[in-house]
Amino acid sequence: MAMLAARAAGKGNGIRRLFSSFPFPSSQPATTPPPPAEPSTNLFISGLNKRTTSEGLEKAFSEFGQVVHARVVTDRVSGYSKGFGFVRYATIEEAAEGIKGMDGKFLEGWVIFAEYARPRSLPPHSSQAKGSSPSGFP
DNA sequence: TGTGAGCGT
Q1: Which nucleotide is nearest to A116 (CA to C1')?
Q2: Of all nucleotides in the shown strands, which has a C1' nearest the CA of A136?
Q3: Roughly how many angstroms between the first and final C-alpha of chain A, as a whole number?
Q4: Which of A1, A22, A32, A61 is least buried, going by the fewest C-beta atoms within 10 A?
Q5: Rounded to 5 degrees, what are φ and ψ at A110?
Q6: Does the predicted TM-score (pTM) go above 0.85?
Q7: Is the pLDDT at A93 greater than 50, yes or no?
Q8: What is the DSSP letter of A124?
């Protein structure tokens, strides 16, 4: 339980920024922009308990809005949870309430972090919905 | 055992 304090102090993606000010010559041109992700109805939930399931996610986040879909990412071959998941609300307002209501809170005994999910893939400039799957997953 | 800092089948 001592790790919970370190997690709470880090607060998501703030830990890796501690190394961005390292006194190095002029190697890294200050790359790695810190995009907090643009607001959307899709949320990225991290810090989940390995035993937390998709319905557990949906049940917890449904208290702050209408959850359209919730999923805990699991390994395809092992079936074990990867410790994070995604929750999609009906509206962006509900997504914001979900973040404010669940970010840094406990779920299944673990402190979780809720933030806006990044787009899964960049818009490929133009897409021909034809032939093979546009999702890239057969 | 899936104790990790993670953006998906």
Answers
A1: B7
A2: B9
A3: 42
A4: A1
A5: -125, 145
A6: no
A7: yes
A8: -
